[in-house]
Each structure stands twice: as C-alpha cells, then as structure tokens.
C-alpha cells in the first residue's frame, strides 16, 4: 500500500466538492480529481485507480460504481461492505451525513476512518449552511401556501376517487361541478370534501 | 369492486398484532412501478393499518440499499436481485428479506433511432427471435462495441437482457459493452450517442420513443411474459424486530395492489405519480399501458420461491464471472430464509386472497392462461412464456 492515499471526489455540488478537496489536500492526501456526473465515470475510475472514492450518498452515479465493484474484483468496493469487519459507527455516521465511499481491498480501517472523518465534517458543515439559508428565505412561504392549496385539491380528488372508485377525471369533474353549483372556489370545495370524507371510516 | 367495505376496513387493522414501530420511512425510485407505494400512501391505506409513513425519493439503488441496511429507511421496493444478492453478502453486509412482490412486467429494451434503422429498416413488428437475429447480423458487420446500458447490475432487465442474448447465441460480453447508467440520464446519454441500447423500467422507454431519440426493440414481456421484478425489501433484522409492522405494511400494499388490479385504476394511479410530483416526467403523450404492469394477487404479489431461484441463478452467474470461478466464496442460504412465504400467507389470508397451495410454480412455459390449485378455489394464472 502506498503511503500517500489517492482520493477521487465525485459530487454534483461544486462548492462542497471544492471544500472537501481542499480539506483532503490539507491533510496530506493526493486528490486525483473532482468529477461531476459524467458518462465516462467508469473509464475515468479505471484510469485513475484511486484508493478511495468519496461520493455524495444521493448521487445517481452510485449505481455505476456499484457495477464496477460487483463486476471487477480490483475496483474499489462500497465502504458498507466493510461495516462488519470494522468501524460500523463511522460508516453509519458517514451514511447519516450523506457521505458514501468506495475503497480498495486491503486498506486499513484507521486509514478509512481518518478520511471518512474529513468528509463527514465537510458534508455536515455544508448541511448546516444550507439549512440556515433555507431558514432565511422567508419569501418561500408564499410558494408553500400555494403548494399546500394544490395538495388539498389533489387530496380531495383522491378521496373522491377512493370513495366512488372512479377515475381522476371523473373526480375532477365532480369537484368542478360542485364549485360551479355552489359558486365557491375549488379550494373551498376541496376543504369541505376532505372534512366530510375523512370523517367516514 | 375492489375497494374494501367499511366494515372490512375497521376490522382488518384490528386483526393484526400492535405495530412495534408506527413511524416508517419508505424509499422509492421514481418509476411507474412504484405506484403501489404511492397509492397506499395517498389513499390512506398505510394510515388505516396504523402506520405513519413518510416516502423518500431516492436517486440510486445503492442509496436505497445502504439506507435500508443502516435503518435510515425501513423498507423500499427494490429489484428482487438486490435482495437475493444481499443474502449472499454481495454488495451488502445485512441480509435482506422480502415477503411480497410488487408487480410484474414494466421493463423494455430501447435502441437509438440510428440503430433501430439499421436493425429494422422496413419497420416490421419484431419478436424476440427476429430482434436477436437482426442484432446478431449487425454485430457481425461492425468492428467497434455496441454500448448497452442497464440501471443496475442486479436489475431484472439486465438479467432478461443476458438471458435473451444467451438464448439466441449472442455473447453478452463480445462486441457488446455493458454499462450502468442512472435512469434519468438514459435518454440524454442515448441522444448524445454515448449508449446505443438501454434497458430500463417505464416510463423511460416510452419517453425515449416519444422524443424520437430511441425506439423500443423489445418489451420485457416479449422476453419473459409477466416476469417478476420489484419486491418489498427490508433487512432480516428489521423483520425480526418489527414483525407486526411488517405485516401491516404488506396489508396496506396488498390493498393498493388490489385497487390497481383494474385497467382504469392502474392508469389513474400512474397519472397520480406525475400530478403529485412523485415522478418528474411528462406522461401525457405516452402509452401508459405499454409496460403491461400487472398487480394481480396472488400472482404478482406472492413471493414465489421458483422466481427467487431464477434471480439467484442470475446473481450467481454474474458474480462467478466477476470473481473468476471463485464460486466457493458464495455462501447461499436457503431461499426460504430470504423469501418469506409464510408472512405473505398470514397477511393475504386476512384479505381473503386466494393463495397458492405450493410456494413454487413452473416458470416460463405457459403460452396461455393456466390454472393452479388455490386455498379458496383454482387460481387463474396468466401466460408466462419466455421468448415470444
């Protein structure tokens, strides 16, 4: 095993990837590259031969790496595979932080842990920044109300579909007719349908 | 009518032991075949069973598996191959189990419009045999590889693709380069010429054709009519800790499948996926019946051991290939440890579902509908012929 571990970072979030790359370099790792979603992911991994790949747990490209690990013995394997042999807690913490990793066979547990810790810290830092941003964006509330109204209409429609065992179109027509007959907005009709039909067992 | 009556509703939940865990998170990948989960949620079937379910949209099967393994998800529909592979410790450390199938059919094979014109210039209706002959002739005439994409190594359509190629004497790994591409990237990758063929669940095949980027070569039911696909996966540990929650979950999903077992309802269910933002794709211009999804019980929902055997053989064949004959490494537990037929029976009985007498059936040989002995009456089974 080489002394200096080589790492490949795959993350759609460019800022987070940059932050992680810097943190890894500061710790003395050699970062082979930062990839965003790419068609040639499998070929790139083949050429770069990283010791460890850090990838966003929710990246759709994980199934690409998965295929490499399952079909090619020399490729990095999902870190979850090592959970039973060693540090289950760190791996669980990684997954809870949205970090997934693929490591080559024979890499020692403490080296895996050290690198996972760096990634976990950076991902968490980013998570915190993001939730703060969401908090600040109060103007989103307006959009949320509109969405809630739409969801109520859909919910009412589903209740009718379920109750009358009818299609969505028929349920929608029924609601529109009620709205016209009662001269009320659709959202009001939806609310009263929900209050009535939800009472039924 | 399939919708249960009020008295059944009130009594069904009370026939189950109290749920060990009420608040459950279920993962799903946005495909048409995730519809039972969505219907169970939106129609309140989970709630009726005393479960408070949160649905979580996931972006890869690997993510679903990891989150189920570490308890971030309680359960998820997944390709049966992933569940059976976990029992052999392939790609997982925690063995997973299933007590319920979540539908038949729903997949297809799409080729780029360019390749379609090469394979079928006169635009004939293809069978699995004529399509194979055309592909074989094409492969003989070209140098370079034809790039073929599936969505996961252990996805059902990857197995069907390999079985079809092998059956018609085409080497799946000669001149065909096998890739994995996430479903939402398939059409884009085909448009840019990165892949020539893809195997995926609906609606991706229909969408590729509607956008004139690809053309369906074969639907999966031409390779194996009414083939099984997704199952409800949980870890063995979760099942052991939450047996009553598991039963209640299955009951709610069986109710959803009963509701979906009718053409109009099924199409209405698919449209809901889009309307309620579970599936980000325009379904308006496509034939939602193309995938021929089937949610009939017990046929499409029973965990048939004979199907577990088929998936297992494919997982084994692939890993033997990968491990280069180190097949001794594979520790395969009995199928009954992974496919929990008794759990299904316990739940389905309460919903008056006619159950098969045996846990296995003959697979892939019936050209027409056929019958099987059932606990209530004879079960009318759908054709299940391979290579039509």
TrEMBL record, chain A:
InterPro entries: ANTAR, CheY-like_superfamily, Sig_transdc_resp-reg_antiterm, Sig_transdc_resp-reg_receiver, WH-like_DNA-bd_sf. Pfam families: ANTAR, Response_reg. Residues 133-194 form the ANTAR domain. The keyword Ribosomal protein does not apply. The keyword S-adenosyl-L-methionine does not apply. The modification 4-aspartylphosphate is found at residue 56. Residues 6-120 form the Response regulatory domain. GO terms for molecular function: RNA binding. Keywords: Phosphoprotein. It comes from the Bacteria. GO terms for biological process: phosphorelay signal transduction system. This is Response regulator receiver and ANTAR domain protein. It comes from Neptunomonas qingdaonensis.
TrEMBL record, chain B:
It is found in: Endomembrane system. Keywords: Cell inner membrane, Cell membrane, Membrane, Transport. Pfam families: NMT1_2. One of its GO terms (cellular component) is endomembrane system. The keyword Ribosomal protein does not apply. Its main location: membrane. The keyword Ion transport does not apply. This is Nitrate/nitrite transport system substrate-binding protein.
